[in-house]
Design brief:
The complex is a heterodimer of chains A (463) and B (257). Chain A is of the alpha+beta class and 463 residues long. Chain A is 46% helix and 24% strand. In chain A, strands 1, 2, 3, 4, 5, 6, 7, 8, 9, 10, 11, 12, 13 and 14 form a 14-stranded mixed β-sheet that branches. Chain A is extended. Chain B has 257 residues and is mainly alpha-helical. The longest helix of chain B is centred in the first third of the chain and has 36 residues. Chain B is flat and about 65 Å long. The chains are: A alpha+beta (463), B mainly alpha (257).
């Protein structure tokens, strides 16, 4: 027993090696934890710095907007004003971009964001108008004045926020973790004190309607092409079965999946084939008024390719004719690995109506129609009055830059970014192996729009 | 376990009394060490297997056969480079088509289909998932497709196809809306806008169906009718989001304006 005891003592280390191993592991963990902690702090600082940078740049941008708007109101020289308004546009967009990079809940900044976008967009419209040699109207001056006041308010509030951030050790990075104690501490500083206040203030500004893509009239647009009587869900299901491109000898059943209450109220109908006969998965939206097909998608997998673009186009034309869609003309086709998307547009006395667009998607394995998008047509189709061109085709031909090879010239109505429609001469031409479409207003010969054809890996956009 | 651990540090003094216990403990510690080693081994093996799983698409050359060759031939045939049969045999016609494809795409025209050529064909060699990578003079739609497809994969890979198109449509509707950033990347990466961005799921390889959905949405299909919000009613906690006017329900998502 004693001997045994002694040998045990001799081998004290040997017997207790697990304790040493554990100690080393513990030390290792500690060192690892320390480096992790330091890495995390560094990363946090880095993130915080980029938030701070966005914040300070945004304040700078908004201050500039305010100053430039004030100058624009004072200036009476169109040449000077164009430069000023173009700069407002740039500064306001930049401010909006910075604002959306900050970790603030969307509901707190949505009005501010819209305000900045509209200021920029509106100023750009004014700059363009001045370039067209048209003076600002009294109404536009009033709008500018109220926008300038808002911008002034905004920058004052942001200065207050900046000061409070300085004194309260506020960190943007803490805003990212909603629900933490730190968040509850810092969030009110932002939401209640500043952005909430800015939000309610800006809420009071009148709607701004002008010729730009962010103008308030865009969101208030009503569908012009949805005509007819209200229909029932059962009727919608019947129409869906009739309009869908279904395979013969397969039994399909329609089911109503609910309604949609967006820009065009619809019944959503799902069409399911009998088990195992085909992989069709069809969803069709039928407008609650008039029973028009709005959206149609068959999301079955497409296996193999047996049709080319021309054959697919043939299928799409036949489908529209057979299913009683309005008479349309093919404008372009986009072919990819498994399907072809053919775009159609309305025609009136030989003039192409690009806004009245319907797209048809054709599966390249068996030529089945696997998609229809008629939203464009239903939003904009209405009886139109064509203008008699004051600029002739030959005059346009001389107007086009010499180095462009003209392929064809025809008349078309095109939608601008603002959804305003203009009647134009469409000139298709090529320059340095790239294709372009140029549009000249038929009334004054102004160049309204230039499109460049982009060749995609799925195959070129062709006409 | 805790009991025996305490013993380790006391062994020096209490060895005599707990000789028996210690012996029993020795067994336990051996088990612990063995356990830790096994764990390490398993971790290592898993990492290795994960590395292998990503695999590589085989390099193809004259004389190669198999399904990869068939894939290559059908791709080249779709794009008009290859006129022969899709027979899975890499013969002279295939080699000619490959060389022509390589020349047109600025690759070394060696007739060997390696990682660079696979990538130009739209197949990533590291994952087997298709990527679109050709552009026309610096402008291309494929960046948009890629980004949207990743957002769809992160946000809605469990949803039906139409649910995936819908998520992409919401992103595109936001780009048009003055209340949101004006670029696709700006909308997707806006802090707090999408959970898939916050938790990094956006960096997953996009699925094929997400890619098709992205293209459909870019081509104009909008099953949400102008919606700019969506939420999962089972998970959404913000009272604010519930107050938005609802447009349509697709799968697990409610879409709103």
């Amino acid at each position: 027993m004693r001997l045994n005891d002694l040998s045990l003592k001799d081998h004290w280390l040997k017997r207790n090696w697990p304790a040493f191993v554990l100690t080393i592991i513990l030390l290792g963990t500690f060192v690892w934890g320390l480096t992790q902690y330091r890495a995390k702090t560094q990363l946090n600082t880095f993130v915080e710095n980029s938030y701070q940078r966005s914040f300070y740049e945004m304040i700078q941008n908004i201050e500039n907007v305010e100053v430039l708007l004030a100058k624009g109101l004072v200036s009476n020289s169109p040449r000077q004003s164009i430069v000023l308004f173009s700069n407002v546009w740039r500064e306001a967009y930049s401010a909006q971009e910075k604002l959306s990079q900050l970790p603030i809940a969307h509901e707190l900044i949505e009005r501010t964001s819209k305000f900045l976008n509209q200021i920029g967009d509106f100023s750009f419209t004014l700059a363009r108008q001045l370039a067209d040699k048209q003076d600002l109207s009294a109404e536009q001056r009033n709008s500018l004045q109220s926008l300038q006041k808002e911008a002034d308010f905004l920058s004052t509030e942001l200065h207050a926020l900046r000061n409070s951030i300085g004194t309260n050790q506020f960190a943007w990075a803490d805003m990212r973790q909603t629900g933490t104690a730190k968040f509850r501490e810092v969030a009110p500083q932002l939401s209640e004190v500043s952005f909430q206040k800015i939000n309610t203030q800006i809420e009071g500004t009148p709607t701004l309607i002008y010729d730009g893509p962010f103008s308030d009239h865009i969101s208030q647009m009503k569908p012009l092409g949805v005509t007819g009587e209200a229909i029932s869900a059962e009727e919608a299901a019947r129409i869906a079965m009739e309009k869908a491109d279904l395979l013969p000898n397969v039994h399909y059943t329609p089911t109503q999946m609910g309604t949609g209450e967006g820009t065009i109220p619809v019944y959503r109908i799902q069409i399911t084939p009998a088990q195992g006969q085909t992989k069709d998965q069809i969803i069709m939206d039928i407008s609650q008024t008039g029973g028009h097909v709005v959206t149609y998608l068959n999301s079955r997998p497409v296996e193999g390719v047996s049709l080319n673009g021309v054959q697919a186009q043939e299928k799409a034309i036949n489908y529209l004719k057979k299913k009683g869609f309005p008479e349309l003309k093919v404008t372009y086709a986009q072919v990819d690995d498994s399907s072809a998307t053919i775009a159609f547009a309305g025609v009136l006395d030989g003039v192409i109506l690009y806004p009245d667009q319907i797209k048809v998607k054709v599966a390249l394995d068996n030529g089945q129609i696997i998609g229809v998008d008629a939203l464009g047509y239903l939003m904009s189709h209405h009886p139109r009055q064509l203008d008699k061109p004051r600029v002739s085709e030959d005059e346009v031909r001389t107007q086009v830059a010499d180095h462009l090879n003209i392929e064809h010239i025809r008349q078309a109505i095109i939608p601008l970014e603002t959804r305003r429609e203009v009647q134009c001469w469409e000139v298709k031409g090529n320059w340095q192996e790239e294709e372009f479409y140029l549009y000249y207003n038929v009334l004054d010969g102004n160049e309204e729009k230039i499109l460049k054809v982009i060749k995609t890996p799925q195959g070129p956009l062709t006409v | 376990m805790f009991h025996s651990l305490r013993k380790i540090f006391l062994t020096g003094k209490s060895a005599r009394q707990t000789d028996q216990l210690t012996r029993r403990f020795r067994l336990t510690q051996r088990q612990i060490i063995l356990g830790v080693l096994t764990l390490l081994l398993i971790c290592g093996l898993q990492a290795y297997r994960a590395e292998m799983a990503v695999g590589q698409r085989a390099t193809l050359y004259w004389g190669s056969t198999g399904s990869d060759v068939r894939l290559l031939q059908s791709k080249l045939s779709n794009w008009g480079y290859y006129k022969g049969n899709i027979d899975g045999v890499f013969g002279p016609d295939t080699a000619r088509a490959v060389r022509e494809f390589q020349r047109k795409n600025g690759l070394v025209a060696d007739g060997i289909v390696g990682p660079a050529t696979w990538a130009a064909l739209g197949y990533s060699t590291t994952s087997g998932v298709q990527t679109v990578s050709v552009s026309s003079k610096g402008v291309s739609q494929s960046d948009d497709v890629e980004l949207l497809a990743r957002a769809i994969t992160g946000e809605a890979r469990g949803e039906s196809y139409i649910g995936q198109v819908a998520v992409a449509a919401v992103i595109l509707n936001r780009v048009e809306d003055p209340r949101f950033p004006n670029t696709i990347a700006g909308v997707i990466y806006q802090p707090g806008a999408f959970t898939a961005v916050a938790d990094g799921q956006i960096n997953l390889q996009p699925t094929e169906s997400a890619r098709r959905a992205a293209i459909d949405a870019l081509n104009g299909w909008d099953p949400t009718y102008g919606s700019v919000y969506y939420y999962n009613p089972a998970k959404a906690t913000s009272a604010w989001i519930w107050s938005r006017p609802r447009t349509i329900t697709i799968g697990r998502h409610v879409f709103a304006n």
